[in-house]
Amino acid sequence: MELLFVLLLALVLDILLGEPPRAIHPVVWIGKAISFLEKFAPLQGAQSRLVYGGVMVLLTIFIFASPVYLLLLYMSQVSPIAYIIVGALLLKPTFSLRELHHTALEIKTLLARDNLRGARGKIPALVSREPQSLGKSALISATVESVAENTCDSFVAPLFYFLFFGVPGAVAYRVINTWDAMIGYHKKYEYLGKFAAKLDDILNFIPARISGLLLVVAAYLSRRDGKNAWQVMLRDHGKTESPNAGWPMSAMAGALRVRLEKVGYYSLGNANNPLSPSLITSGIKLAGVSVLIWVLFSLTLEVTYFVLAA
């Protein structure tokens, strides 16, 4: 039953306080650890870099997840309240909803004022595209795509692994996802980041599809085009290079009846509606409903497990 209250308190912390300061944010520490370990990677040899990348991913998981497990094991022996408080404080940094939506809304406000320079300055917080080449429509599309994709990466997936493996599971997922975000398998990281990228693909396989379905259901509940969201998701989910990102992004495109596009890479949905700044707000609301559904499902699952276990 403690896990139920851990989840509830972590959600409250996210809503009320958002992200911890960078100086004490675990994801920042994970990033620093990755940057440090990268310095010692072999400069040549595909096999050597591949093996080093894999070992470093597993080592980083151990470094961050095992202390969480041991600390919570100790707290469970101290008192249930201590366990819930510490567990929530450790779980909260593994997901981010308030910060994601806040950044997206900032970009929307800048675009509504035609402040493309300001929007380009904010967009790297959401996507890794070269901002200077993005026009207004491309900035809107990138923002909505990020809101959709991060519904999975920044919320559904961490809680998915929390439900099965507790707080250490959510932490382990965040470590792997951070590795993939920082050192993917393209360009100079072709081999060094391949293990992390493939492992991230595997871990997101189920959560990404859940996220797509949640957005379809959210579209129906929000009086958006749920039927189109379903049809576009089934049609376009395979157009992205990632085997997972296309599911929530294409569902979002279908629900909003727009075309979301990364020029030269993929095009999702149909251009029934124009790409206006207000579309970002619509995407955030749709993502918010899907997140609410997932929270209710997760809480119900925890309660059901407690009742059955009792």
Question: Which features does this protein show?
Answer:
single chain, 310 residues, mainly alpha, two-stranded antiparallel ribbon, 2 strands, 2% strand
What does the secondary structure layout of this molecule look like, with pairings?
Elements lengths: L1 H16 L8 H13 L7 H33 L1 H12 L6 H15 L3 H7 L13 H47 L11 H28 L4 H11 L9 H11 L3 E3 L3 E3 L9 H32 L1
Antiparallel strand pairs: 1-2
Task: Write a structural description.
- It is a single chain.
- This protein has about 300 residues and is mainly alpha-helical.
- The protein has one domain.
- Helix content is about 75%, strand content about 0%.
- It has 11 helices and 2 strands, in the order H-H-H-H-H-H-H-H-H-H-E-E-H.
- The protein has helices at about 1-15, 25-40, 45-80, 80-90, 100-110, 115-120, 135-180, 195-220, 225-235, 245-255, 280-310; strands spanning about 260, 265-270.
- The chain has a two-stranded antiparallel sheet with strand order 1-2.
- Helix 4 crosses helix 7 and helix 9 runs antiparallel to helix 10 (about 245-255).
- The longest helix is centred in the middle third of the chain and has 47 residues, at about 135-180.
- It is globular, with a radius of gyration of 20 Å.
- The termini are close together.
- The model has no long low-confidence stretch (mean pLDDT about 95).
Q: What ranges have pLDDT less than 50 throughout 5 or more consecutive residues?
A: none
Total beta strands: 2
| Overall number of domains | 1
Fraction of residues in helix = over 70%
Major β-sheet profile:
2 strands, antiparallel
Side by side, the strands of the main sheet go: 1-2
Question: What's the Cα radius of gyration?
Answer: 20 Å
Number of helices: 11
User: Strand-residue fraction?
Assistant: under 5%
Q: What is the ordering of alpha helices and beta strands?
A: HHHHHHHHHHEEH
**Overall mean pLDDT:** 93
Distance between the termini: 10 Å
* C-alpha geometry: globular
User: What structural class do the secondary elements suggest?
Assistant: mainly alpha
